[in-house]
Model the fold of this input.
Amino acid sequence: MARHSLAFIGNKALWKCVVNLKELSELLGISQTTVSRALNGYPEVSEATRKRVMEAARTHNYSPNARAQGLAMGHSRCIGHVISVRDSSEMVNPIFGDFMAGAGETYARHGYEMMLTRVEADREADVYRNLKARGSVDGIVVQAPRMNDQRLAVLDEIGLPFVVHGRASGTTVPYSWLDVNNRRAFEEAAQYLLNLGHRRIALINGLEDLDFARRRRTGFEAAMAQAGVDVDPSLMVTDDMTEGHGYSNARAMLERAEPPSAFLVSSIICALGVQRALDERGLRLGTDVSIATFDDCLSYLGNGGETPVFTAARSSVRAAGAELADMLIQRIRTPDAPQVECLWEAEFVVGTSTGPYQG
Done:
């Protein structure tokens, strides 16, 4: 059935009939394949047929369906994001939401859609193979890469274009990636706290089977070693980066006979939990206890105005989503091009959450 859309000429609103490929094909009495090829400039279509199709398309306000056009040419015009059950909390994480918002802007600009699939952790390889066999997606964005991540080998084996948000240490297959220099970001943040006189510094990290969290821990330990300060393993915790994770661990550490005077935290969301623990004990942020964190520049969770609340290593996850999506689309278009490796440096900003050690 033909659709109708509202058009404006001057101040007058006019309804116009809009047909799709199937309806245009029926009007002309020509197969959908021939109509599609005529519209897309394929040389095997005669000039007379092409002219007839183009005139009919203009007359009947043909509106192309980007996905249908892609399928006719052997492409789905769709990008896949596969989230396993073990990472399913990512789907409600503001960080994931901002990444997808950035990626979605790029997809829309290039005429792509996105497919989000949630699967059991042990079925990811099967899902990738099924997506490839059915032609459901043109490429995959791999998120939250783990150490020795086996997903990359599977995608390389089946020949499905992919890019990685982050890196996967220990993986030998070549792949394109975009990452933040997490090691340097946390080494710089720890050095800043050390220069303020802090020595008992707690690390509240993400899950350390994830590559980024392991790199952040390495940066923290390197700064402590360089300053000649022993790391207290009991002041290093790893878990999902939630507000509750920050709160419960900070609360337990603050109850010790020798509590930490500073916290280095893997997410501004966790940092808010640490701040809640300080507030409960009547401790002043930036005076009694300092907090430095990683800030993903979240759209709905800003780090203050001109003066940041939290001292932070800052890098926009939304911008990363947009850039990585563009990298994948370029890879789909030129699959034999060299792999791209993109390392961003975080911007270190000083906020009101840090201050000199009070003794």
User: Anything to note?
Assistant: The longest strand covers residues 3-9. The chain has three domains: 1-64, 78-180+318-344, 182-314. The mean pLDDT is 89.
